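Hi everyone, sorry if this is the wrong subforum. Our group has a chain we'd like a structural model of before ordering constructs, and none of us has done structure prediction before. Sequence below.
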Amino acid sequence: MSTSTRSSKPSRAAKRTRRQVNPDAPFDENLLEKARQIASGYQFVIRPSGTLGYVGRTLELPLVLADGRNPEDCLKATMFAVETAVATMLESGQPPPVTASRRVEQINIRLTSEEKLLLEGESQRKGFRGLSDFVRAAALAEASGIASRDK
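Answer:
Right subforum, don't worry. Here is the predicted structure as tokens:
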């Protein structure tokens, strides 16, 4: 599963906040090392898959996935995918997510039943782990001026 290819079509809001990068150029070694350090603090989840062997992701980047024939191969592939995603974010000027263990603050939001159903459906459709992750990602994207994108 190759994850080193970068998207060449950023959203309008993302164009305003991102630096220009050459998607064919390799990452700067210092930037890649910083991405490795950040990714090493993430919480990895490896699960068996009937057709792929094992599938891995992190709590911090739930839509960055990789697979492997066994848990070790899956972890290596997932680490590579996450490092690549974090390096791409750093290179383009986006802040990567902080580790899940650093999230210690909590807020409460009151919703109608219909609003909650709508948000839960959209959260599942976009592949988020839960409603909290979806709401946090959408709110942070809005607050930072980065448009949320379907992934």
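For your construct planning: The two ends are 16 Å apart (CA to CA). The beta strands are 44-49, 53-58, 66-68.
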